[in-house]
Each structure stands twice: as structure tokens, then as C-alpha cells.
Amino acid sequence: MIVLLILVHIFLLFVNIQKMAQHKGLQRQWESILPSKKNVDGVVNELRILQGKQKATEGIVPGEKILWSQKFNILSDSLPRGVWLKKVSLEEGMLFIEGSAISTENEGMINVHKFTSNLKGQGKFLEHFAELELGSIQRRRIKHMDIADFIITARLK
Fold it and tell me: N or C: which end of the chain has fewer CB within 10 A?
């Protein structure tokens, strides 16, 4: 009986040694794969972030895509002389166009109104917007130049 117990114990010892060797081999394999896994995880996370951004932009106007390059070309073409844009942003379904107009003969306000009228006359620009409004105009003077700072808002349909 004792001999049988010793033989079983020796058998189990060999099985245990074999399993430990297997474990170390798998551990070395895992360590060799780990850098690649980190790279793949980084790519997957970046992909998820990009997909989230894509879904957020698709949710702005469901079913219809806006050609923003066309909108920016129209903005550029509609700018009268002496008017420049500082910022164009889209936030919560509203397009904000911030800019300034410069003049020496009080034409700044007229040029801002002309710019707004030019945009309102562009059907391609307005096709995705429910309304286009000129917000407040702030006038300031630097030396002999009048500057009119303005904000135009447009709500997405």
C-alpha cells in the first residue's frame, strides 16, 4: 500500500512538473504577444473614438449630408472687401460666424449687412439652415479706423 502511495505521489509530481513547464511556455508566449496586443488595443480605442465622432456628426442632420466645403466656399465668395472672418463654429445645431469689418469712412456696418444679405441670397448656403440672423454688432475705433465686430447665427434644420 505504501509503495502504491509513493508511486501515485511520484506520478502526480511528474504531472505537476509537466503542467508548470506548460504554464511557463504559455507565459513566455503571452509576454511575446503583449506589445502587439497593446498596439491593437490602442488602434481599437482610436477607432471607437472616431466612430463616436462620426455618429455625432451624422446625428446633426439625419439622412442628408452637408457639404461643408461648399458652404465655406460660399462664405468666402460672399465676403465684401474689408470684412474678414475670425471663427466659424458649429455647436448644438447652431452655426456661428464671427468676424470683423474694417473701414475708414464708416462703411464697416454697411459691409456687414451686405455680407449677411449676400449669404441670405445664396440658396445653396441656406438649404440646410432654418434661419440666418445677424446678431449684435460691436463698434470700436483704433486710431483712424472703425472696426465692427459681428456674429451671424444660423440654425440647422
Answer: N
Cβ pair 100, 84 in contact under 8 A:
yes
Task: Give 124-153 pLDDT, tens digit per residue.
Answer: 888 888 889 998 888 888 888 888 899 999
CB atoms within 10 A of CB 98: 15
For the chain, how big is the Rg over CA atoms in Å?
34
Cα–Cα distance, 125 to 73 (Å, whole number): 9
What pTM does this model have?
A: 0.58
Assign residue 111 the CATH number of its domain: 3.30.70
pLDDT tens for residues 51-63? Answer: 988 877 765 655 5
12: domain range?
1-58
Distances (CA, A) of 96 to 31, 80, 104: 52, 18, 27
Residue from 61, 135, 129 nearest 95 by CA: 129
Query: What 3-state class would DSSP assign to 128?
Result: coil
User: Could you tell me the strand order of the sheet in which 94-103 lies?
Assistant: 83-91, 94-103, 145-156, 129-142
Contact of 98 with 128, CB cutoff 8 Å: no
